[in-house]
Design brief:
two-stranded antiparallel ribbon, about 25% strand
C-alpha cells in the first residue's frame, strides 16, 4: 500500500470532484488528509460510525460503504489492516 500522501495525491489527480479525503486507521487516527486536521478527525470519526452502524445490519465485516446524501456522496473503503 502506498504511503497516505501518495494515495491522496493520486486520488485527487484522477478525480476533480473530491472535496475531502482522509486516510485513517481502524481506531480513527488520521494518517493523512487533504483537509485541515480538525475536519479530518471529524470525517474519520463519522466514517467509523457509518461502518459500525452498517455492520450491525449483517453478519459480515464490510470493506466498503457508499452513501448518497443531498449534498454529495460518502465513499469509505478499508482493508484488512
Amino acid at each position: 500500500m502506498p504511503p497516505p500522501a501518495d494515495a491522496l495525491a493520486h486520488l485527487t489527480e484522477i478525480s476533480t470532484q473530491i472535496q475531502a479525503a482522509v486516510v485513517f486507521d481502524r481506531e480513527g487516527t488520521v494518517l493523512g488528509s487533504i483537509v485541515d486536521d480538525e475536519r479530518a478527525g471529524r470525517i474519520a470519526e463519522k466514517a467509523l460510525e457509518l461502518f459500525r452502524a452498517a455492520e450491525k445490519q449483517g453478519n459480515q465485516e464490510l470493506v466498503q460503504l457508499d452513501a448518497s446524501l443531498p449534498d454529495g456522496t460518502v465513499f469509505v473503503v478499508r482493508d484488512a489492516d
